[in-house]
Amino acid sequence: MSSSPVAGPAPTGPTSGSDTVTTGQPAPDRSRRPERRGPRIRPVPAGARRGPRPRAARYWPQYLAISPYYLIFSVFMLFPVIFTVYLAFQRWDGVGDMQFVGFQQFRFLWDDPVFWLSVRNTLVIWVLSTVPMLCLALVLAVLVNSTKRLTAFYRVALFIPSITSLVAIAIFFGAIFSNNFGLINAILRALHLSAVPWMSNEWTIKLVIAALMTWQWTGYNAIIYLAGLQAIPSELHEAARMDGAGPVRIFFSITIPLLRPIILFTVVISTVTGLQSFTEPQVLFGSEAATNPNSGGPGQAGLTTLLYFYHQAFDNNDFGYGAAIVWAFFLLILLIVVINWRLVQRKERRP
Amino acid sequence: MNSQNRERLRGLSVHLILMTGVVISVFPFYWIVVMATNTSQDIYRYPPKLWFGDNLLTNIQHLFDKMDFFGSLVNTVIVAVCTTVLVLFFDSLAAFAFAKYDFPAKKFLFGVLLSMYILPTQLAIIPQYEIMVQLGWLGTLQALIVPAAANAFGIFWMRQYTTTSVPDELLDAARIEGAGFIRLYWHVVLPCVRPALAFLGIYTFIAAWNDYILPLVMLVNPDRLTLQVALAQLYAGHSTDYSMVMSGVLLSVIPLVLVFTFFARGFIADATKGALR
Predict the structure, then answer these.
(1) What is the ipTM, given to two decimal places?
(2) Residue B235 Cα, gap to closest chain A Cα (Å)
(3) Same domain assignment for residues B190 and B241
(4) Is B60 part of a structural domain of the chain?
(5) Where are chain A's structural domains?
(6) Which of A87, A172, A215, A318 to mutate to test binding with chain B, by most B CBs within 10 Å of its CB?
(7) Confidence band (pLDDT; 50, 70, 90) for B232?
């Protein structure tokens, strides 16, 4: 019966509708039982009074119940996403008339050095944060899993960074990595090392942003890994230990392969969120307009693609170009996720 | 004896490494308090002060001179509370329909819901802005609340829970008493799904409280900002007056972290469940 997923009058005929619902069930799924009785008690007399009705109509409370999501989704998500495609082929400042320009926005994008700089920045920050984040998370998870004491405490303490406001943490990182008065440089000075101009060097700017992301998400990923580790039967580890495998051997030959689906999950999630870094550089380096050569910090070293998109769309009011950037960027994320997926999958097949 | 000692040493080093992780995790909160309770001169000094000072009230006074903290706080609370209440209601209602009824096009509709997970909000944000302009909602709080009032994740999460933990027998019994869809939802389903609602509520509240990019785009009126946007602007304008800015960070972050710590154990268990599903 669910093979005709089009809402509206069912071709089976309105009167036989309730019968096909009860008898045509392929699986004795428990969740279907209430539905069988529901229509039998209420809508049938109503249908008898008002004559035959389309089958879908007697489920109006259910459709009404799910409608808020679909209404909000259509108006604020589906339509806007499609409209963004349309916008990418227009020139529009948000106020005047739109002007169709064909592929001109994308051609401009292709030749725009700032766009490619922002893509490079985004990728570098993503690698600098994701790799240490996931490795550290795995180590922490294995360690928590190896002990019985204080585990609840560790879980809460490691999880807290992930619920902390990104704006607050960006301000905090800005303060401790400050060139002149930051805590980090004070520590370096106490160790008789020379201070580092964190906020003005092309690489240290990226390093600070990556450190921020690593701080925020390592614990979250560790908790996810921990859940996966706890699902691995301890007999497996026991058996390996009996066979004389050391902890390192066990880690690489048993833990990692069994954890692969979860590692894949965390890689995809950190790719999608890591590539969308925006708040960090936006808060750290102010909100200068795109025309400012220092937007995204000195040398534009912290200008991520989303920040560049924001500047073009909402500081320059260049909605057409903004739409082109954000679509190109979405396709790039999709490509990277697919490549990641393939890489992790292929490793999985190797024994 | 010797191997026992080695075992103990190993356990100790595990806890030592984990404690280092914990210290790194919570150090920012400690340091935020240190900066917020000292003067900016103390922070700039070398060596810097490492312990709490007694300048918090003065810093907060400066903060209140520089930004409308209470106004932003009220706006943030309104947005977070309204979003949470609406999400809890709409998502659990839709989840009930999806979990316990079979209606035409259900599979198709649920498939749409699942596949739309992946669309990033940034793809929609320019037209969303334009829609808010047309509705006259730009700069108002409903521009943030209405688009977030129902979401795919919450419906998916609540549906899983409703399917397994609302007994069909109970629904049938209530139906025989003559209860309709809404009464079933209110009197049978809601009491059963409370634990799942708790997780979804905390999650939604935190996400709404911390949201930045959407308020940044939509709240064009400088008198009507959420805390996150107001703090970022304060920092952009007064980035050298650390102690004042940090007192704002402290006031906006610490309550949420404390409340979270209170609910943390159940929340973390649910969060991993939600992630691994």
Answers:
(1) 0.91
(2) 7
(3) yes
(4) no
(5) 1-87, 109-349
(6) A172
(7) very high
Q: Which pTM does this prediction carry?
A: 0.84
* Closest CB from B104, B119, B245 relative to A81: B119
Most confident of A29-43, A77-91, B41-55: A77-91
Q: In this predicted structure, what is the pLDDT of residue A15? A: 36
Among A31, A58, A87, A310, the residue to mutate for chain B (most B Cβ within 10 A): A31
**Which residues in chain A are contacts of B153 at CB distance < 8 A?**
none
Residue A161 pLDDT exceeds 90: yes
Spell out which residues of chain B touch residue A31, defining contact as CB-CB under 8 Å.
Answer: 99-100, 102, 163, 168
Domain that holds residue B6: 2-54
Sort A299 into a burial class: Cβ within 10 Å, 0-12 / 13-18 / 19+. Answer: middle
Residue A334 main-chain phi, psi, to 5 deg: -60, -45
- For chain B, say whether A160 makes contact (Cβ under 8 Å): yes
Chain A, chain B: beta-carbon pairs less than 8 Å apart: 299
Q: 3-state DSSP helix/strand/coil percent for chain B, to nearest 5?
A: 80, 0, 20
- Chain B interface includes A181 (CB < 8 A): yes
Please tell me the distance from the alpha carbon of residue B21 to that of residue A215, in angstroms, as a whole number.
10
In the structure encoding, which two tokens stand for residue A299, read together? Answer: 């040398």
Say how many domains are in chain B.
2
Residues of A in contact with B124 (CB under 8 A): 76-77, 80-81, 84
As beta bridge partners, residue A99 has A91
Q: Tell me which fold the domain A109-349 belongs to.
A: MetI-like fold (1.10.3720)
B211 inside domain: yes
Q: What whole-number distance in Å separates Cα of residue A331 and Cα of residue A336?
A: 9
Q: Is the pLDDT of residue A269 over 90?
A: no
CATH of the domain at B153: 1.10.3720.10
According to the model, what pLDDT value does residue B156 have? 92
Tokens, residue B132 = 């808010």
CB-nearest to B236 from A37, A219, A286 is A286
Tokens 């109503």 found at: A46
- Subunit contact A150:B94, Cβ cutoff 8 A: no
Report CB contact under 8 Å: A161, B232. no
Look at residue A293 in the predicted model and tell me its pLDDT.
Answer: 59
Residue A49 clears pLDDT 60, i.e. is over it: no
- Mutant choice from B72, B116, B117, B123 vs A, greatest count of A C-beta within 10 A: B123
Closest C-alpha to A47, from A36, A58, A38: A58
